[in-house]
Amino acid sequence: MISTNFQARRVALFATTALVLTMAASAVQAQDNTVQLGAVQVEGQGAPDTNPYADPAAPYKADRLSSSKFTEPVLNTPRSETVITKEALQDTGATSLRDVVTGTAGVTLGSGEGGNAFGDRFFIRGFDARNDVFVDGVRDPGVMVRENFDTEQVEILKGPASTFAGRGTTGGSLNIVTKQARDGTFYDFEATGGLSDNTKRLTADVNYAIDPTLDARVNGMIQNANVAGRNYTTDNRRGIAGAVTWRPSDTLTITGNYSYSYLYGLPDFGVPYNPLARRPDTSGDVSRNTYYGAINRDFTQSQQAQGGVDITWVATDWLTFENKARQSHSLLNYIGTIPENPSATGATAPFSSSTTKFSGYTQLNAQSQYEPVTVLVDQPQATFFFDVGPVRNTAVVGGEFSSEHVSIAKYSGLSSELTTGVAAFTSGFAPIVPVGSPTNTILSASKPTLGAPTNVYKINTNAGYVMDTANYKDFVILNGGIRFDGYGVTSSNATASQHANSNITSYNVGLVIKPAEEISLYGAFATGADPVGDEVDASASAYGGLAPTQPTGQVFAAMKSKAYEVGVKWSLFNDHLLATAAAFRTDVTNARETAPAGIPGFTSGQIYPNAAYRVEGFDLGVTGNITDDWSVQAGAVIMTPKITRSINPNDVGLQLANIAPESFNLLTKYNVRDWLAVGGQALANSQTKGGSLLAANGGVAYPGAAYPTMIPSYWRFDMFAEGVVTKNILVRLNVQNIFDKTYYSALYQSAVPFVQIAPVRSVYLSAEVKL
Q1: 380, 396 in Cβ contact below 8 A?
Q2: What is the spatial distance between Cα 32 and Cα 44, in angstroms, rounded to a whole number?
Q3: Which of left, alpha, beta for 101 (phi over 0: left; psi -120 to 50: alpha)?
Q4: Using CA of residue 91, residue 92, residue 95, residue 97, what is the dihedral sign?
Q5: Sign of the dihedral defined by the CA atoms of residues 345, 348, 350, 352, in that order
Q6: Cα 636-746-736 angle, rounded to 5 deg
């Protein structure tokens, strides 16, 4: 049974979602049942640039998922999912995958730690999903920073997805759907200027019908920008993507894709944390603009190139063959500075227990990563359509064969000394500076030099799966599947090597009952597995990596998960609004943990597969059009992520780190006139706790009491307005964080913490031309 012992205050998050539904019901009482698209549109020549997966009359609402593994519409799919369509991405001004996740209930950001890279790190329903990101259904491993210029929609699948996607995916997965070549010809150009951060951004999207069988599409992007409210930081980007669709016959379609993106600038790894006040120093002690990096040394580069060919052959009316072939190469390369260790002292102690005012020092520790990732994947699949009496079946049989090569290296020569005029305190050659006036120019004893790889991962996966969806007269729909993954990983460096094999069998089953055409009641069960070494950006075995120099005590059976979910999906207002509600529980066993000192029978610092976790909660969502003029996308998630078993008895019952137990998002848009639309966004996250590894315990040694770090809860409000100037020109104003709220997006979960700070109020003006 799923627990219902949530505190009453948490239910308040659902009140806003319920209010939206109530307002919707009232709005349609005075009109007929016909609901049509009310968004501002710009007329143009050729085919309109619309999302092929979304409802044409309600562009926030996705009718189906992009993968052919999901054979029923979203309404009839027995699981929770959140789909952010191209229209929603555009209205919110989300230009990166991190922007998308920040605006989604139930998903939170994490930070690099334990040797893990600083890049896109996401937690879905309480579990790390940093290596569970997919592009067009193909795993995109490694941690990097991803752009949205070539994105059609982002699909967030919640709950274990091992049957569909393979290893990992304990809490869920993210799939980026890219733009494909379409029938017809259109030209779309957009220029954006940032009034708060000096953003200059240009994008182009051109689709051209070469002949009736051949279409081509090109997307391009260039951006130069600072970061609002942060000194020195820059965020520059370049990107190009191309796609070709060829239909040599009515039954054969061949598509080719290639994309390249390059993001670079001066990174911002965060601000110090006040351990006594339990809040970041920029929330009252020092200016939020204060920057702790080294402008003469730090840099970040994130590059990605990927290409592939997809073939779809409709052999008969009962059999379709598909094959996806992909090759990708990415590079995450940076040197950055983290302001941690708030107890670092120089001549005097920086604080005492009698005060919560932290006016002392912080230690500037250099972090670096050089992580190239190369992936080669082939995914053959066959789909069978057949009837067994009155039951319509869609069976999917396929495989996945992949090779991944990940190399992790660090820079040497990062020891440094302080510049003249700042207190010359150092610890391990890392500067200790006043919190309120850090130096931003580091004098180094040597030039940073890239070292030899500390970890080289070689991963081979051979997988096969079978799924079937049995539909009885659109009244009872039964879905089930099983997948086997043969997963082998080798970690090596110049002196040592380790290898681990994991044979993983995952399965899922879901039942949908439809008492009415517009209502789906469902129950679902699924399993998942995280094998040793699947966190391929980690250089420490305690964080999910496989260390080449650690001969014993790190190779265990895969971490196992079981997920249960019951819910309802209800299509309203002529199928233009989808309301969902689900209760869920995920149990994880065989989780790895590091033994603290002082526990009888366990060796301090040794890894043991003894931990267990449980995450349970409720998930609500509303997406689509309420009236012909009113669009909405809202979500609310309440969950209790807790440790249920640990070798450290003080950890049992603690909240998992990096998780916001309550979160909420609301995006709404209203067509005021034929030429004017206005809208806004509200985002909320409850207090998020940090700690050592997964436990929110602040890294306090056994048997110390829990002492978690935390970032405060927050609400953020955005607004936008868009108007038609001519039939081909649209202008848009976006104001993000309109009340100039100081809030934080992620924290480093350790006893010497720092946190990542979000931008202040940001104002953007865009002009879009469609031809």
Answers
A1: no
A2: 30
A3: alpha
A4: negative
A5: positive
A6: 65
Mean pLDDT along residues 687-694: 73
Among residues 690, 498, 681, 724, which one has the least CA distance to residue 105? Answer: 681
Going from the C-alpha of 686 to that of each of 689, 748, 759, the distances in angstroms are: 10, 17, 18
SS3 38: coil
The CATH number of the domain where 563 resides is what? 2.40.170.20
pLDDT per residue as tens digits for the range 587-618: 999 988 888 788 888 888 788 888 999 999 99
In a domain? residue 151 = yes
Q: Give all strands (DSSP E) within 44-167, no chain letters.
A: 54-55, 58-62, 81-85, 107-109, 122-124, 127-128, 133-135, 138-139, 151-158
Segments forming the whole domain that contains residue 464? 8-770
The amino acid present at 658, given as its one-letter code, is: N
pLDDT tier, 382 (very low <50, low <70, confident <90, very high otherwise): very high
Q: In this structure, is residue 3 part of a structural domain? A: no
Per-residue CA distances from 653 to 28, 171, 642, 697 (Å) = 47, 19, 6, 11
> Is 1 a domain residue?
no
Total domains in the chain come to 1
Place of tokens 């039951």: 391
Contact 732, 720 (CB under 8 A): yes
Residue 2 lies in a domain: no
pLDDT per residue as tens digits for the range 414-458: 876 543 334 344 445 678 888 888 889 887 667 889 999 988 999
HSE value, Cβ hemisphere, 13 Å, CA-based, for 184: 10
